[in-house]
């Protein structure tokens, strides 16, 4: 009888030890699964998927400080493309200029108003003239905010009878501000000036 009780006690100890081992193993596996899930979730939070032209593109989130030089140059380039790309279509001109003016302060609006008052845009439409811009360089000084920039570009004015190439040089300052749908880079162009805008050559068509 005593021997049988001892066997039962030994068997109970074995079962208890086995149960504890299973519990510890289960807790360890569950903890590792939770940790890996957390790490995977953090990794996916840094990834953005963009649908463009029927293709899924992967983009990675990063701190703004890492991208300031690229975003600043692209902001200046985008503004100049919108402001100086014109076609003989009033709606197209207004669409481009309204987008451009969200990227700059009153200095750009003043330039627009002066061109409008002089009949520049009316002449573009009446003369079936197109204007394109090719950016040569955008230099931004990031040592002090607001950031000074200088833009060098080539304007191509396409008339029915001629093709005019013009040198364009502008300067201004970039002030950081909150991003928005209309200003995705989060910069505002201030004190924008056209330093040089002169013909380089005229080609007869």
TrEMBL record:
It comes from the Bacteria. Keywords: Membrane, Transmembrane, Transmembrane helix. The chain crosses the membrane at residues 15-35. InterPro entries: Conjug_transposon_TraK. NCBIfam families: Bac_Flav_CT_K. This is Conjugative transposon TraK protein. It comes from Rhabdobacter roseus. The lineage of its organism: Bacteria, Pseudomonadati, Bacteroidota, Cytophagia, Cytophagales.
């Amino acid at each position: 009888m005593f021997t049988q009780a001892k066997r039962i006690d030994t068997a109970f100890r074995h079962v208890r030890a086995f149960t504890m081992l299973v519990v510890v193993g289960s807790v360890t596996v569950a903890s590792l699964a939770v940790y890996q899930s957390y790490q995977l979730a953090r990794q996916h939070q840094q990834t953005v998927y963009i649908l463009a032209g029927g293709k899924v593109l992967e983009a990675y989130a990063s701190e703004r400080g890492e991208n300031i030089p690229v975003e600043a140059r692209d902001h200046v380039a985008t503004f100049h493309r919108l402001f100086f790309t014109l076609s003989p279509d009033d709606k197209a001109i207004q669409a481009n200029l309204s987008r451009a003016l969200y990227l700059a302060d009153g200095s750009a609006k003043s330039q627009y108003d002066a061109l409008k008052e002089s009949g520049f845009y009316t002449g573009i439409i009446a003369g079936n003239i197109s204007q394109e811009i090719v950016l040569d360089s955008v230099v931004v000084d990031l040592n002090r905010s607001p950031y000074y920039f200088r833009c060098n570009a080539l304007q191509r004015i396409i008339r029915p009878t001629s093709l005019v190439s013009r040198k364009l040089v502008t300067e201004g300052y970039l002030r950081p501000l909150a991003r928005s749908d209309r200003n995705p880079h989060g910069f505002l162009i201030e004190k924008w000036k056209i330093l040089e805008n002169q013909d380089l050559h005229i080609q007869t068509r």
